[in-house]
Each structure stands twice: as structure tokens, then as C-alpha cells.
Specification:
Largest sheet: 8 strands, antiparallel, barrel
Helix content: 10-25%
Structural class: alpha+beta
Order of helices and strands: EHEHEHEHEHEEEEHEEEEE
Length: about 300
């Protein structure tokens, strides 16, 4: 595998003995690509199968490219094809943008997928949204869910997205324990004053202060979210990355983040508050996986 320049690619295209492969998602391929290129998306699990079926000869001359040199899709695709035994793999790291900037011919609709919406106010749909959690101690890992009670997003006059998500802490569940008694004991403990004190604090909240675009790729973590998270009686600033896109007129935001519970005064089994815990140590980090759907 090697990397080729725009000048070299122009020579290659004139020879007409190479297969050009755009490794971006179909919607980006249709919007803008090089003439006579094929499309096999590196993000699809079927990528390897598609290439092998289309190009059975390992001696095929291949050029892979993505959007631009800031991203690694083409390099990743080149490495995979080389590992499969393809002998002549060339990576055009400059991608579609580099080719266009150099004056190369571009084909496609020029219409890229939209990550914007026109509505100024959207309501979160709790039944289509979810939050999953994962916590660990020295010996075990536990997983579960909690329901979203309500939520809304708004845009100001500068199109800055803001909003609030309210989580119903009374709905905390455990998903990994098969024994009903053990499962109920764990959930009861999580709702107790040792952990989230649900009777006193029945909800948790995330107030979204701003959402900043950090990537134009719909298939990446393309937004950075700055928020205020309230758990029990504490409200702290919290920043994380998320994947946002528009599907069927709905705003879909999803991703995962790790939250240190001890910062919100959830103390049970935490080495931040207690010594000599031994087998009773519970790790402070809780991993959350989420999907918010709003319209």
C-alpha cells in the first residue's frame, strides 16, 4: 500500500487500468465523487464482502479515497484491502475535496445530507428515546436503563441549539441479572440514599447550553455538547461528543459518555470518600449510552 498525489492520480486515470473506490457512505458518494468511481462504504460491515465480490483478482490496481486528508477513511480502507492480499492498493489521501481543489472533474448531485432543521422548537419523544447505563465494581459489571420523562430542544436567532432532558430516576432497571430477587435488590439499592436517593430526588436533568458542530461527517461524532447536569442536589458543567442527524424530519442525537458519580456526591463504595473498601469498592465511573429523538 502506498499514498499517491493528485498529480500521480491524474496519470493513473489517464491509464484507465485502475479501479477508483470512494469509501464514504452512499449519500456522500452520490453527492460528490470522482468520475467512473465505485462505492464501497468503509463503515459498512459488508465492506470486505462487497470488495471481494466486485474485485476477485488480488492483482487489481486499486485507488481508495474519502472526503479529505483530515480524515482517515481512505487510509483505513487501504490497510484493510492490503491485509486481504490485494497487491496494488493506492491511497489518495487528499480525497474528493483535494481533487476538486486541484481542478479535477467532479460528478454528483452536490446535495449533501442535511444536519440542520428549520423548526425553532422540538419536543423529545420519550418512547423513541432511551438511556442505558453500565456500572462496575471489582468483581462485576451491571447494566440497565432509565426512562426519559420529557425533553425539548430550541434554537435561538443564531441557530444555537439548546434544550433540556429530564430523566425519571424512579424507572431505573437492571438488565443483566437473571435472578429476580437479586435484580430487585440491586435496583432498590440504586434508588436508596446510598446512591441516587430517588424518593427525595425523583428526576435528574441535563440542561443543554450549546451544541457545536465539530465535523461535517454524518457518520462521525459530529457535535460537541456543553451542558449542565443535575443529579441529586448538585449541578455541574459537563461536556461530551454526540452524533446528530435528521431522519424522517426528526432530530436524532445519540452517543455515549462516562460520568464520574462521585462528583455529584453519589458516595457508596467510592474510594474518593472511603478507605479500606476491599471487595466493597464500586468504581466511580458510570458509562451511559443514549439516543434522543425529537420532532
Amino acid at each position: 500500500m502506498d499514498t499517491i498525489t493528485t498529480k500521480k492520480l491524474k496519470e493513473v486515470i489517464k491509464q484507465k487500468d485502475h479501479v477508483l473506490i470512494n469509501v464514504l457512505p452512499d449519500e456522500y458518494y452520490k453527492a460528490m465523487t470522482l468520475p467512473d468511481s465505485k462505492n464501497f462504504c468503509i463503515y459498512e460491515t459488508s465492506f470486505i464482502k462487497q470488495v471481494q465480490e466486485a474485485l476477485p483478482s488480488k492483482k487489481t490496481n486499486i485507488v481508495v479515497f474519502g472526503m479529505d486528508k483530515k480524515h482517515n477513511a481512505s487510509k483505513r480502507a487501504g490497510a484493510i484491502l492490503t491485509s486481504l492480499g490485494y497487491e496494488h492498493v493506492h491511497v489518495y489521501a487528499e480525497g474528493v475535496e483535494g481533487w476538486k481543489k486541484a481542478g479535477g472533474e467532479i460528478v454528483g448531485t452536490k446535495k449533501f445530507p442535511s444536519n440542520t432543521f428549520k423548526k425553532k422548537s422540538l419536543k423529545v419523544l420519550p418512547k423513541e428515546s432511551y438511556i442505558e447505563w453500565e456500572g462496575t465494581n471489582i468483581f462485576n459489571k451491571h447494566t440497565g436503563t432509565t426512562d426519559i420523562a420529557s425533553g425539548a430542544f430550541t434554537q435561538d436567532n443564531k441557530n444555537v441549539l439548546m434544550g433540556e432532558i429530564t430523566v425519571d430516576m424512579k424507572t431505573v432497571t437492571n438488565k443483566d441479572m437473571s435472578d429476580k430477587a437479586s435484580r430487585e435488590h440491586l435496583v432498590s439499592h440504586l434508588k436508596s440514599p446510598d446512591f441516587f436517593e430517588v424518593q427525595k430526588y425523583p428526576t435528574a436533568k441535563m440542561q443543554i447550553l450549546s451544541v457545536k458542530k465539530i465535523s461535517d461527517f454524518k457518520s462521525s461524532l459530529n457535535y460537541q455538547v456543553t451542558s449542565l447536569v443535575t443529579i441529586k442536589s448538585k449541578t455541574l458543567l459537563f461536556t461530551f461528543k454526540a452524533h446528530g442527524h435528521i431522519t424522517d424530519g426528526k432530530l436524532v442525537t445519540q452517543g455515549n459518555f462516562i460520568l464520574d458519580r462521585s462528583k455529584w456526591d453519589v458516595q457508596y463504595g467510592s474510594s474518593r470518600f472511603f478507605e479500606a473498601l476491599g471487595k466493597h469498592l464500586v468504581h466511580d465511573e458510570i458509562r451511559f449510552r443514549f439516543r434522543f429523538v425529537a420532532e
